[in-house]
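Model it.
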Amino acid sequence: MASTSNPQAWRTNLRIWSRRWFPHQPGALVMAMSPALAGAVTSWWEQGRSAASWWLVVCWLLCYCVQFSAARWMKSHGARRWLTQPVAYCVVLCVVGLPFVLMHPDILVWAPAMALLAAVSFIAAWRREERSLWANAAAVCASCLMAALTFHYGCAGAADDIPGMSGKGLLLSCAFGMVQFGSVLFVKTMIRERGSKRYLAASWAWHVGALLLAAFEGNAALVALGAALLSRAVAVPIVSMRHTVRPLHTGLVEFAASMLTFVLIVVAAI
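Modeled.
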């Protein structure tokens, strides 16, 4: 009995430990990291000289871990059992991130904006409204800004007056912003706001607007992406009206959409 129960207890303890220390929302992690990775990949394709973009990607991953764990502590209204994780992640972030800031102090120009977005996230967590539309919008803004920043520092510190304000950096950030907020609306029509005609109309209108902007930009990759995401935003909710579409299936659709988004936005930028 002991030989069979101990491995089971070990697996249970490992699962509990991993849930306490690592983000357990893969969809949110993909949305948070894909813009930063796209900026790094695009800058590598353009220049291939600086490793600063990949360093910044690691810093951003640690920032996500700090935000995730701190928001959970905020949601618990200060429960001590959730305090260790954000403190530990903050220490690691300081060790990894402070040298980057010392080498690239101009990135601090974005500190007030990021602090404001983090404050919105923490207020939402404290009020237990982290899945509200305004909290989602703040998260999208923060993650999509990173595309411009990783592209900037990957290009050996392009001489922008404000880091990340180059043409391709802005293209990456804006494209991801349009797509990710559209994904927020789409997922709400499938899960939390399923059956809401108001959210469905907002989702369709947003995706139509994104497609029109892509057509105005004249970029074939963005037009293809906009058409694919609009088709998904229209077809899947209609199918769900007649057949059961489980959250798992919605998640798989969004994973495929995220992969397609990453590839086509990078192609559009290069």
